[in-house]
Amino acid sequence: MGIELHKASRGGDVTYHGPGQLVAYPVFPVKAGVVAHIEAMAVAVIAVLAHFGVKGEFRRDEPGVWVGNAKICAFGVHIRRRVAIHGLALNVSTALSAFEVIVPCGLIGRSVTSISALIGANVEVQQLLPLFVESVANAFEIKLAPTSDVVLERTFH
User: Fold this and answer.
1) What tens digit of pLDDT does each residue of 30-77 get?
2) What band does 117 get if pLDDT is binned at 50, 70 and 90?
3) What is the CATH number of the domain that holds 64?
4) Does residue 148 fall inside a structural domain?
């Protein structure tokens, strides 16, 4: 399928990152613990999903955001010197066939979905970026100030 394999220092098992996916690495100090950090990311993702009429839920025993029995967002966090790096991958309009060649996050027999698949309409990652940034700020209880330091990078060809 032309998919490259890369090893990473984040938690979790095998995952896929590709076009149509919002991959975000909120680099923040971990103040209340790793689980609280992941739960805050989940709150942000669930708020974005709600905007599209999709009800997501965080599952602590199977970290990620789920819609029914399908995972829509995976988390992988690495903590170094009490700072979280890596983050999340939210399937927006991801080609779900890419997940057929792996066992996503090591969860055997589980399916993966996307916002576009659930609502039956194509949603572009760029469409939800402002909402996502606002949701992350709310979830982590931080105030955003206008700046030109935001890094939005497209790494897929």
Assistant:
1) 888 888 888 999 999 999 999 999 999 998 888 899 999 999 998 877
2) very high
3) 3.30.930.10
4) no
Three-state DSSP at 131 gives: helix
Position with higher pLDDT, 12 vs 65: 65
Please tell me the pTM assigned to this model.
Answer: 0.81
Number of independent structural domains in the chain = 1
What is the distance in angstroms between the CA of the first residue and the CA of the last residue of the chain? 14
DSSP string, 19-77: TTEEEE---EE-SS-HHHHHHHHHHHHHHHHHHTT---EE-SSS-EEEETTEEEEEEEE
Active site residues: 105
Token readout for 154 is 């497209």
The four Cα atoms 25, 39, 19, 11 give a dihedral, to 10 degrees, of 70
Burial of residue 84 (number of CB atoms within 10 Å: 0-12, 13-18, 19+): buried
Query: Partners of 74 in the beta sheet?
Result: 64, 89
The parent domain of residue 51 ranges over 21-139
Distance CA 63, CA 153 (A): 26
Beta bridge partners of 117: none
In a domain, 9, yes or no: no
